[in-house]
Amino acid sequence: MKKNKYVVFAMIGFELVALILIALWLGGLLAKKGFDSTISQTVCVLMAFFIWFVSLIMKLKGLKND
User: pTM for the full model?
Assistant: First the structure.
């Protein structure tokens, strides 16, 4: 099945927004559990960017192979 490249590129932005929102929610949850608010949210957002970057590399390699 042929992938629509425009849809793939549009979903990359939505994926990043969703990951950041989840990371902020998780950071707030960790802050309620007793961790430092700033550090927990920062670590969660950095992990979200790392996950997004790995996902981006995998998607671009997949598009290159098509």
Answer: 0.79
